[in-house]
Structure formats: C-alpha cells, structure tokens
Amino acid sequence: MTLRIIPQRFAPHAQGLLRIAAALLFMQHGAAKLFGVPHVAMFDNLKLFSLLGAAGILELVGGLLLLLGLFTRPVAFILSGQMAVAYFFFHAGQDLWPLQNKGELAALYCFVFLFFAAAGPGAFALDRE
C-alpha cells in the first residue's frame, strides 16, 4: 500500500505549479542581467552581446515561455543545457561539490528543466498536451 498525502489526480497541478514557480524565479536572473532589476552589482555594465547577455536573453525569454507553458519541452531542454554549461564552465572548476563551488542552483535548474523536457508542462499551460 502506498501512502499518498496528495492524491495522484493532482500531480499535473503540482507539476504546473512547479513549472510556474521555477519560471518566475529563473526570469529574475534574466531581468537582473538585462534590466538591472533586481540589482545585482556583478551585472553592472553588462554587454547585451556577451555570454552573460545571451544567458540573460535565454533566461528572460525562455522563462516567460515556460511560465506560459508554450513550447515547454524544447524550451526546457535548451534551458537545461544552458544550466549544464553554466555549472560545468563556471562552477565545477572551482571545487568538486556544488555547495562549495556555488553551483547548486545551476545544477538544480538543470534537472528541473530536464524534468519538464521529458514530462511536459503539467496543468495551467497554454500548450495543452
């Protein structure tokens, strides 16, 4: 017998809420890079045509598409790849452990987005599967 705190029929709703929450949080990274809101000093004087500028565009536009549930699978796959690159190119070289190399958020986003690439958007998406 399986103990279920939340009935299985609500799984698509939980999946949709996770997608929306992850997208809103992810979009903050793009907004900080591109518009300075919220302000992160590291992104001052960021050039749009730079690696961080391109990341900001992916974060803002990709996050918006995920938020709306449009093209969820391909967008999530691209964003998962972006986060894998962020982890391996910017964090992993500093230390083996994500907690010590400050890469745990990139790693978590990578796998959350990989989940949506495989499982789809869940409930509350404009693209219904």
UniProtKB/TrEMBL annotation:
Tell me what this protein is called: DoxX family membrane protein
Q: Can the keyword Manganese be found in this entry's annotation?
A: no
Which UniProt keywords are listed? Cell membrane, Membrane, Transmembrane, Transmembrane helix
> InterPro entries, from UniProt?
DoxX, DoxX-like_oxidoreductase
Protein's cellular compartments: Cell membrane
Question: What Pfam families does this protein's entry cite?
Answer: DoxX
Where does the source fall among the domains of life? Bacteria
Q: Coiled-coil ranges per the record?
A: none
Topology in membrane = Multi-pass membrane protein
The UniProt entry's sequence similarity note says: Belongs to the DoxX family.
The main location class comes to: membrane
Residues that span the membrane, as ranges: 48-68, 75-93, 105-126
Q: Name one GO cellular component term.
A: plasma membrane
Which organism does this sequence originate in? Methylocystis hirsuta
